[in-house]
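RECORD TYPE: inverse folding
INPUT: structure tokens
STRUCTURE:
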């Protein structure tokens, strides 16, 4: 695994402000390629954690802590401002397999995450044992197994060093992965590792500026099996009650939320709508931002293709909303609608996002940190009160 490096572009600053030119964008894209290549699954996120540990260790003004559930908190060492904590949140796992037992060439694995049943039929898996990658093919699927679906797969080699707790994922070797081509990142797990990179990239800028020591990053575990890391943090109150959470996601793209049209202020998911004050403040902030940055593209959408950690945080009384990237081949499922309609065969493929959307998400996060607590920023309530003052005479 390549260590996340710090190069000359990243170290270059003028008046304490990180320069965000082509060099820093290339560096962030390298982080994308490195991190989204690593295997991860709920409860077995150690490869991603190791990468993040190395990234933090290279930045002396950041600290990394864990709660009892193993969620990662990255905060700044400088004295905190009086603002309420602002945490950019993403999760460390992706749907995948974990080996439970092995008998000769037969391997039993449980699947942790959400993928439709047809995609398992005769699928080829990559299983990672230490530094070695082994290949197996699924021969049976037990849909009713608890707590997770189980598959039996046959290894290509009897001498493959596969053992219990090894991680598996769908084999996606038709083209070189990960890769950036024609403005898109194609890789094993955009969801949610590209959001992890976006959060770290934004923090890397803000840690160099004065006045943003209240901004940090929260990276949660086991999101794909029901927000388990998030729920554990809520119950244990390892997240400060006053914190505001900007949950980052990669959400399935629909025709009205296209890839390449910009990052999305996600107002809700298929289960709930998010904190209205925080969501509306960010929406208004972005409408103001685009007036002075006409090239900036963004969207505001419901995104009902899944459920987000913001729903879990909001349910436990936290102020939480979501920003997301529109995602292709959600959970590695190609042509979901066609497969569900019975008109297309099920096949797996790389997830993909727009690289411009990714850079836009980093820009959006930095803008939120800069402007949410600005004393001269009029809130939506203040804007509405201004309308009443100006035109209230019409109803008196």
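DESIGNED SEQUENCE:
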């Amino acid at each position: 695994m390549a260590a996340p490096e710090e190069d000359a572009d990243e170290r270059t600053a003028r008046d304490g402000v990180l320069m965000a030119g082509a060099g820093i964008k290339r560096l962030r894209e390298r982080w994308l390629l490195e991190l989204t290549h690593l295997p991860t699954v709920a409860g077995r996120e150690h490869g991603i954690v190791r990468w993040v540990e190395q990234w933090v260790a290279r930045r002396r003004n950041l600290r990394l802590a864990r709660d009892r559930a193993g969620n990662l908190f990255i905060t700044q060492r400088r004295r905190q401002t009086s603002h309420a904590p602002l945490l950019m949140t993403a999760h460390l796992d992706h749907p995948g397999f974990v080996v439970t037992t092995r008998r000769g060439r037969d391997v039993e694995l449980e699947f942790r995450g959400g993928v439709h049943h047809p995609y398992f039929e005769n699928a080829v898996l990559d299983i990672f044992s230490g530094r070695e990658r082994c290949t197996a093919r699924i021969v049976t699927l037990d849909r009713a197994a608890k707590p997770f679906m189980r598959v039996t797969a046959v290894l290509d080699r009897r001498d493959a060093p596969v053992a219990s707790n090894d991680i598996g994922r769908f084999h996606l070797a038709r083209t070189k992965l990960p890769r950036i081509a024609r403005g898109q990142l194609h890789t094993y797990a955009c969801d949610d590792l590209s959001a992890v990179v976006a959060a770290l990239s934004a923090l890397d800028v803000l840690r160099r500026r004065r006045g943003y020591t209240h901004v940090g990053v929260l990276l949660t575990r086991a999101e794909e099996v029901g927000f388990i890391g998030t729920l554990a943090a809520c119950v244990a109150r390892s997240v400060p009650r006053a914190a505001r959470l900007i949950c980052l996601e990669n959400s399935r793209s629909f025709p009205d939320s296209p890839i390449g049209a910009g990052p999305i202020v996600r107002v809700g998911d298929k289960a709930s709508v998010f904190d209205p004050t925080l969501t509306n403040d960010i929406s208004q902030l972005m409408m103001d931002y685009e007036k002075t940055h006409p090239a900036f593209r963004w969207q505001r959408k419901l995104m009902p293709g899944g459920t987000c950690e913001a729903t879990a945080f909001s349910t436990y009384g936290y102020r939480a909303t979501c920003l997301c990237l529109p995602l292709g081949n959600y959970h590695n499922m190609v042509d979901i609608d066609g497969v569900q309609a019975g008109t297309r065969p099920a096949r797996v493929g790389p997830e993909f996002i727009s690289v411009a959307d990714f850079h836009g998400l980093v820009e959006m996060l930095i803008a939120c940190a800069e402007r949410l607590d600005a004393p001269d920023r009029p809130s939506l309530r203040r804007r509405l009160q201004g309308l009443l003052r100006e035109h209230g005479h019409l109803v008196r």
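NOTES: Residues 7-19 have pLDDT under 50 and may be disordered.
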